Amino acid sequence: MASRGRPRPGSLQVLAAVLLLAAASGAAAGSPDRPAPGPPLFLPLTRSYPNASQLAGSLRRGLGGGAHPNARMRLHDDLLTNGYYTTRLYIGTPPQEFALIVDSGSTVTYVPCASCEQCGNHQDPRFQPDLSSTYSPVKCNVDCTCDNDKNQCTYERQYAEMSSSSGVLGEDIVSFGRESELKPQRAVFGCENSETGDLFSQHADGIMGLGRGQLSIMDQLVDKGVISDSFSLCYGGMDVGGGAMVLGGMPSPSDMVFSRSDPVRSPYYNIELKEIHVGGKALRVDPRVFDSKHGTVLDSGTTYAYLPEQAFVAFKDAVTSKVHSLKKIRGPDPNYKDICFAGAGRNVSQLHEVFPAVDMVFGNGQKLSITPENYLFRHSKVDGAYCLGVFQNGKDPTTLLGGIIVRNTLVTYDRHNEKIGFWKTNCSELWERLHIGGGPSPAPSSDTGSQADMSPAPAPSGLPEFDVGLITVDMSINVTYPNLKPHLHELAELIAKELEIDSRQVRVMNVTSQGNSTLIRWGIFPAGPDNAMSNTTAMGIIYRLTQHHVQLPENLGSYQLLEWNVQPLTRRSWFQEHVVSILLGILLAILFTLSAFLVVLVWRKKFSGQPAYRPVDSVTPEQELQPL
Fold first, then answer.
1. DSSP string covering 391-408, please?
2. Of 77, 124, 223, 299, which is the active-site residue?
3. Phi-psi bin for 250: left (phi > 0), alpha (psi -120 to 50), beta?
4. Which uninterrupted H or E stretch holds 498?
5. What is the maximum span of the chain, computed from C-alpha positions, in angstroms?
6. pLDDT in tens, 548-571
7. Given pLDDT bands bounded at 50, 70 and 90, which one contains residue 619?
């Protein structure tokens, strides 16, 4: 299984060596009949240990007669932030949606079962076999490990990171997206009854296994003849995340470089690495240092790269000697002795002006040139600082190249021709650069009606340089409006908590009932009326939303992000900024004037009715007495 977080391996076990505690071959019983060849599809990755007969079978597989069309899907999340990439897979009839870690080293695809008593709180509701009309358990047979009642096949997987998964095997319809050219297929998968370690605490629902083995989704589809024996993936670059993957064959770019990959030598996807050049000079190491028992292992699920001690020391010294202008600083995590450099600036596209280029030379003489973003990660505590994403693999002689090495690189795992290809590109523009129409397909929805035409919003690839005054987000939640209405305030607080902002910044702008679902437009405002969100803050909020970091309670079901929009902060004139003060001043002036007028009026009235004062001895006119 792919290593997640920041594992620092000390042996080949870091390859997430899956222990086949249960016979993986149990999937053979209950596998559907093999129909005529059909189309392929795009998704994310993991690894495993096939036996000799399985390997021989895979070697006999061809690309099939005729070309198979491809199906494309998005990768979500980020390798360094989350420790993994996920894709959306749909199981059952009607389909139930799951976010699965794509792992080129695992051989089982599994999701939490509704009956699981020891499963964590993940992104989506658990799989409910009773709600699927096409689900069937894999019956107990001589080729699998059975449950205590001898009724159903089971599986169990333990990983080097001390996490584990166990449960029963079932078979159901698996679909890969509304625009996938590969029609839904019956496949065997694991229904979890227990999780431990990282599998219990992770946000993703489960694992999609793409390694070599009978339970692998790749092997099942290839054995059915519906896709070619190949898959490709493309990880986004630094600070971008996401990407795309293809299951099945696809045209290779003319300048793609290849290395041989020997499936007999190792159950892992390996390449023949002979030399590493830093700044145009080869490292002074014996080429055999990269040629251990398993060769150089390429594991897209492992975060960083790990070299044998001799090669690591040479690589570290070569890079350090090229960056005299930078200051060496401590890493962000005191538990690790990271090698970090400050003063390189925030612009990733200009890192090549400071850090040296690195070339990887394969056994056939072809060379893959990688940029600094393929061996550096951003320092999380010091702005403009970066750390080496290449580490020593303890005392283990294995060379392990993780996902950081292939960021912004299209990697094709051509299993049929026993080779792996590399093509440097911008993965956010992959289809345009390959001159393939359309982008990754939107996910299918289990709802019908108006929501069927809704497509999920893409992750942000960059925002214009302006201060952000408002982010609007259209979200479809698969709960009716009467049931959702009492929870709107609770939902706003939950979104604010997941986005790490104040709850007063999240407001409901519009609510529309759409049958069995509810469409909500949220407004996300800056912290204060005179404040603005920076581009970085806005990008972070949008990224969390598009990557489904917001996790809804089970009673609110799942959601789909349909559209997001960013509006600049409106700059007000002096009059607009002080209009309230001006109005208050005018009001006070009016009140003061009225008060003064009233005082004068009362004073005059009070004194106008009294006779004028006359001295006592003054002469007064004689007045005639009135008759009684």
1. EE-TT---EEE-GGGGBT
2. 299
3. beta
4. helix 488-499
5. 146
6. 667 777 666 667 778 888 887 765
7. low
Rounded-to-integer distance, Cα 522 and Cα 519, Å: 10
Token code pair at residue 383: 């702005």
441, HSE (Cβ side, Cα atoms, 13 Å): 22
Which position has the token pair 């809704």? 454
Q: What contacts 346, CB < 8 A, 6 or more positions away?
A: 383, 384
State mean pLDDT over 387-411. 92
> Residue 474, SS3?
strand
> At 251, is the secondary structure helix, strand, or coil?
coil
Q: How many CA atoms lie within 13 A of 106 on its CB side?
A: 30
Residue with tokens 């609770």: 490
| Amino acid letter for position 241 | G
Q: Where residue 177 falls among pLDDT bands split at 50, 70, 90?
A: confident
Whether 299 is catalytic is: yes
Helix (H, G, I), strand (E, B) or coil at 452: helix
Asked whether 229 and 121 are in contact (CB, 8 A), the reply is no
**In whole angstroms, what is the distance from residue 194 CA to residue 205 CA?**
13
> Is residue 447 annotated as a catalytic residue, yes or no?
no
Q: Please give the backbone phi and psi of residue 423, each rounded to the nearest 5 degrees, phi first.
A: -145, 110
Distance CA 206, CA 252 (A): 31
Transcribe 407-447 into DSSP letters: BTEEEEEETTTTEEEEEE--GGGHHHHTT-SS-SBPPP-S-
What does the mean pLDDT of the chain come to?
79
What are the CA-CA distances from residue 275 to residues 278, 289, 319, 357, 363 (Å)? 10, 9, 15, 14, 9
Residue 597 pLDDT exceeds 70: yes
Report the amino acid identity of residue 503: S
Closest CA to 461 of 315, 564, 329, 557: 564
Q: Write the DSSP assignment of 42-58 as a string of letters.
A: ---B------HHHHHHH
Distance CA(222)–CA(211), nearest Å, equals: 12
**Least confident range of 20-29, 299-308, 374-383:** 20-29
Structure tokens of 612? 């004028």
Does residue 96 carry a pLDDT above 90?
yes
What are the backbone dihedrals phi and psi of residue 196, each rounded to the nearest 5 degrees, phi first?
Answer: -140, 165
Beta strand 86-91 with 96-103: parallel, antiparallel or unpaired? antiparallel
For residues 89 and 140, what is the distance between their CA atoms, to the nearest angstrom? Answer: 26
For 236-283, strand residue ranges (E) read 243-247, 257-260, 270-271, 273-278, 281-282
- Options 78, 103, 198, 223, the catalytic residue: 103
pLDDT in tens, 459-502: 444 455 567 788 888 888 877 888 888 888 888 888 888 787 88
Q: What is the reported pLDDT for 499?
A: 81
SS3 159: coil
φ, ψ for residue 44, nearest 5 deg: -110, -175
DSSP character for 200? H
Which neighbouring-strand residues pair with 526?
none
Distance CA 373, CA 236 (A): 11
